[in-house]
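does this look right to u?? adenosine-5'-diphosphate version
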Amino acid sequence: MTTALAFRDVNAFYGPAQALFGMQLTVGAGETVALLGRNGAGKTTTMRAAMNILVRRTGEIDVLGEPAKGTSDRIARRGVGWVPDDRRIFPTLTVRENLLLAQKSARAKDREPVEFDEVLEILPIMKRLIDRRGSALSGGEQQAVAIARAIVARPRLLLLDEPTEGLAPVIVEELQRAVADLPGRFGMSILLAEQNLAFVQSIAQQVLVLETGRLVYSGTAAEFAADPSIRERFLAIGSA
Ligand SMILES: Nc1ncnc2c1ncn2[C@@H]1O[C@H](COP(=O)(O)OP(=O)(O)O)[C@@H](O)[C@H]1O
Ligand SMILES: [Mg+2]
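got this back:
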């Protein structure tokens, strides 16, 4: 498998309202692709379409070499980790219990989970959170746990929806190191929705920009970095 995720001419709809128009994207094996765009551009919808959840769509989507059909659970079973923007972790459970559940769930899907030691090595912040309850964590800490939980399942494709939104800089730095480490360590492919350009540029090989549901730019991270006019045209207002 050389392509982890592919969209061909995808239109997506919420009821009568169209949210994606002719979306094209390819995430190669081991590649990190960033999806940029202002609020409402269609980043989250792109991830929902890949998981076949909440949106009606036309066009073709392949996830890990197979069409994105059936329930999101079935798609996840192929080896897809999705960290939605709501950071849902179990509030009454400790971080350790949250991660144990993820390990158990991975085993139930015949996937070999990542051991705790390795998770702590990737995300050292987990060390001091491990025995705290979900409800006692800050938003940034919850986000780190949500990502750790996705990593535990050793996904082949990871969908990260605005992981740095509202986070303190020190947590952003740690996430940056962690996410940058995943392709080399596990061979993971990553689709990263973001508004934080510094974060994106340190991690992604390809950059896509969405504007009101349409792809308005696609290039390598180096090309993107070299062309400030793209940032001014599509991202300056309303981006972090
Ligand atoms: N559940 C929903 N029901 C109806 N419209 C939605 C829903 N979620 C998102 N939208 C609309 O779809 C468009 C794309 O939104 P979204 O994918 O959430 O953008 P982003 O993640 O880039 O902020 C927006 O116009 C938004 O209002
Ligand atoms: Mg979103």
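The domain at 3-234 is CATH 3.40.50.300 (Rossmann fold). idk if thats expected tbh
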